[in-house]
Structure formats: structure tokens, C-alpha cells
């Protein structure tokens, strides 16, 4: 319903912000790390939002970037992971780092997040990979793989950017601007995100 909220940052609290839009204050729940990056009080801000309606509650969840929102929407498709858990996870890990952990089935990395045990981590990997396969987010044809290999670009970086919701052409254009010879996968992703945002 709301793609984003843009207005004056009136309040920053533990777990939420209030943004004033033409005299209406929107209470938006965010991770503490996202709140820290949201901006200074009384400055103009833009927060990407997820509008949740349940039987007993209506909430707005906010994110600094589309990548965070995309990962949040992915996380809440996993059984047992609600919006609050997803926000808590994103408060402790970058979306690109989490995407790499899923791709590589890095259970140790995922269980380092607060409140995530081994069984939950395994379920996250299994359910997210299945979901991504259905959406063709992780499947690449041989032509794409060949292009990536020729340019010496990490296929893990490509997969992670797809998980974050970017299309093939966008990713190829962004990665084409990066010298990938002397940097690691996470640095490739961070640099690519600067071009994509």
C-alpha cells in the first residue's frame, strides 16, 4: 500500500521512528541500525515501507534501502519468522551478507544472529532457496554464467544481488563498472549496490 514515506523525521526511539508528512505523524518500526542511519531529527527523510495488516494489529515497517525491504519481504515468507524477527535479524546483518550466507548454506553465519538456532537457520536456508528457485532469482542460464566467468565476476555476488531484487541487466551493468580482480565478493556487492541505488 505504501511504497515509501517521505517527510520530516520528528522522533527517533528504540525500535521506531515518527515521520511527519503534512501534519500526520507516521509511526514506523525499524531496526535500531536502520534508525541510526535514518538521518538527523527534523531533517527530510525517505523510508521504504512494508504495510502489515493482521487480525489484531496494523503496522508500518521501515527500511533505509530497497535492498533491506526486499530481504525483509523474503524473510517473512519463512515459516516461524515474523516481521519483528525479520527486523531484528536485519538489525544485525547486512542484506548482502545474509544473502551470501543463504547461497553458501553458511549455517554458522546465520546462527550468529540473536535468537536464531541451528534448526531455524537450516529452515531459513531450505525455505529461502526453494522460494528463490520458484522466482528464478537464483537460476542463471549458461550464457549468463559464461559472461560472468569471462569478466571474472563472482557468481556469488551475482546471486546475492538477484536475491536483493535486482534484474539481470541491472546487475550486469553495475558489475561491468567494477574492477573485480583485487576485491572480495562482499566488496563487489557493496560497490555494485552504490551503482544500483
* Side-by-side strand order of the widest sheet: 3-2-1-4-5
How far apart, in Å, are the first and last alpha carbons?
22 Å
Shape: globular
Q: What's the number of helices?
A: 10
Helix percent band? 40-55%
Weakly predicted, low-confidence segments: 135-153
Radius of gyration: 18 Å
Instruction: Give helix and strand order, one letter per element, not per position.
Output: EEEHEEHHHHHHHHH
Structural class: alpha+beta
Write down how many β-strands occur, each being a DSSP E stretch of 2 or more residues: 5
Instruction: Report on the biggest sheet.
Output: 5 strands, antiparallel
What proportion of the residues form beta strands (DSSP E)? 15-25%
Query: Residue-averaged pLDDT, rounded?
Result: 83
Task: Describe the overall structure.
- With 197 residues, this protein is α+β, with helices and mostly antiparallel strands.
- The chain has ten helices and five strands.
- It has a five-stranded antiparallel sheet.
- A hairpin with a 2-residue loop joins strand 1 and strand 2 (16-21).
- Helix 4 (95-103) packs across helix 8 and helix 8 (155-163) packs across helix 10 (185-196).
- It is globular.
- Residues 135-153 have low confidence and may be disordered.
Offer a quick outline of the entry.
With 197 residues, this protein is α+β, with helices and mostly antiparallel strands. It has ten helices and five strands. Helix 2 crosses helix 3, helix 8 crosses helix 10 (185-196) and helix 9 (168-176) crosses helix 10.
